[in-house]
Amino acid sequence: MTATPTTVTPTTVTPTTAAPAGPTTAAPAGPTTAAPAGLTTAALGPTTAAPGPTTAGGPARSRAGGRPDADRPAPARAGRDWSDVPALVLAATVATPGGDVALAVTPDGVVRAAGYAPLDAVLGRLRAAYPGVVSREVAPADLPGDAVPALERYAAGDAGALEAVPVTQPGGEFFQAAWDAMRRIPPGRTVTYTELAAMAGRPAAVRAAGTACARNLVAPFVPCHRIVRTDGSLGGYAFGVATKQALLAHERGAAS
After folding, report:
1. How many C-beta neighbours within 10 Å does residue 198 have?
2. What are phi and psi for residue 195, nearest 5 degrees?
3. Within the chain, how many helices (H) and strands (E) appear?
4. Which domains are present in the chain?
5. Pick the catalytic residue: 104, 212, 224, 254?
6. What is the pLDDT of residues 206-240, one digit of tens each?
7. Contact call for residues 226 and 82 (beta carbons, < 8 A)
8. Rounded distance, CA 223 to CA 133, Å?
9. Contact 200, 209 (CB under 8 A)
10. How many other CB atoms sit within 10 Å of the CB of residue 32?
C-alpha cells in the first residue's frame, strides 16, 4: 500500500508596520524669573533694602477722646527693617537746649543712635545692638541727611522739627509700635506709661511700655522724654531727669 504524501501549505506572515511615532513637542518652559537677591551691605553703609521710612504729612492714626495724637500728621516711622545691619555710621555731637546730642547716622541719612551722652557711650549702645559696626567721627555739617538741620531748628524753637527725621532701631513688634506712638505725641505734651501702652495697641503692657522707653536708642528723635508716671511726676530718663525736664520746658515754651 502506497502512502499519499501530505503537502504543507506555507503560511505567509504579514509583517505589521508600526505607525511612526509623531514628534513630541515639549512645551517651551516659561522663563523663570529669579527673585532678586537681597541687597548686600556696601562698604559705606547699607542701602535701603526695606521700604524707607515714611515721612511726615500722611494721615495719623487717631485715638478717640481728643487724645494727644489725634489729627496729627504721621511722623517718620521709628523703625524700618532693622535687620539691615549698618556697616558704617558717621558720628558727631550737636548742641541742643537739653545738652549736647551725640548721634550716629548711616550714609543714607538714617539716624541709628542718638542721646544726651558722650559720643563713645552712644556708640557703645549702638555696638551692643550691632556688633562690628564701624564708626567715623565727622563735623556736624558733614553728617548726611536732615538730622543736624532738624536739631538746629528744634533748638531755635521749632519743637516738631525732629518728627520727619528717619530713624531705625532694633526691637520687636510692640517696641516698634511704642516708638511710633511716642513720635505722635505733640511737643510740649506728655502721656503716661499706661496711655503709651494703649497707644501701642496693648493696654495691659504698661511695664513693656516702660522698657520701650529705656531701650530707645534714638532720643530725642523718638521722644521718650514725653512719657511720665500716672501721677504726673517725671519718672526716670536714661540721660537724667534734669535733661528730661529741660526738654519738656523747651517744648512747652515753643508751643506757647
Report:
1. 18
2. -65, -40
3. 6, 6
4. 88-255 (1.10.10.10)
5. 224
6. 999 999 999 999 999 999 999 999 999 999 999 99
7. no
8. 25
9. yes
10. 6
Residue 159's SS3 state is: coil
Three-state DSSP state, 20: coil
Q: Between β-strands 88-96 and 134-137, what pairing exists: parallel, antiparallel or unpaired?
A: parallel
Predicted TM-score of the model (pTM): 0.69
What single-letter DSSP state applies at residue 137?
A: E
User: 89-103 pLDDT, tens per residue?
Assistant: 999 999 988 899 999
CB atoms within 10 A of CB 227: 26
Question: Grid coordinates in use for 146?
Answer: 536732615
β-bridge partners, 192: 228
Whether the CB-CB separation of 111 and 105 falls below 8 Å is answered with: yes
Name the strand (E) or helix (H) holding 30.
none
- 224 labelled catalytic: yes
- Long-range Cβ contacts of 119-124 (<8 Å, 24+ apart): 119/91, 119/92, 119/93, 122/91, 123/89, 123/91
The answer to whether residues 181 and 63 touch, using CB atoms and an 8 Å cutoff, is: no
Q: Read out DSSP for 50-106? A: SPPPP-TTBPPPP-TTT-TTTTPPBPPPS-S-TTS--SEEEEEEEEETTEEEEEEE-
- Are 103 and 143 a contacting pair, CB within 8 Å? yes
